[in-house]
Write a sequence for this structure.
């Protein structure tokens, strides 16, 4: 059996901390010139950070974690949502104007293992 033939459902069976919502990991990178720590971008950064939880609620996104690696100019978000569009809305302007994003639906290792074992039966 080849692993690439398995059909995964990104909606966890049996529930997780995200319920039956899909989990996503979003990685956003920016250039030093577009860094929100720069003086000319401070206000934009403050507004987005202060409104992050409200924007998540409005977009229908549950924020499981938000992380940054300042020296690499990279943000990481762990999110739960019913659909990809909600994640796009949450990360939308102004964040996506200044960042390149990679957004991927993810499974826990347990969920992936369950899918592999189920497929092999």
């Amino acid at each position: 059996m080849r692993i690439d033939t398995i059909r995964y459902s990104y909606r966890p069976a049996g529930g997780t901390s995200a319920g039956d919502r899909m989990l996503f990991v979003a990685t956003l990178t920016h250039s030093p010139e577009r860094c929100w720590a720069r003086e000319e971008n401070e206000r934009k950064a403050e507004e987005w950070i202060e409104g992050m939880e409200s924007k998540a609620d409005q977009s229908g996104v549950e924020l499981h974690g938000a992380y940054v690696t300042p020296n690499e100019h990279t943000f990481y978000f762990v999110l739960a949502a019913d659909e990809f569009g909600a994640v796009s809305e949450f990360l939308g302007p102004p964040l996506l104007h200044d960042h390149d994003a990679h957004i991927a639906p993810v499974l826990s290792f347990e969920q992936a293992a369950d899918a592999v074992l189920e497929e092999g039966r």
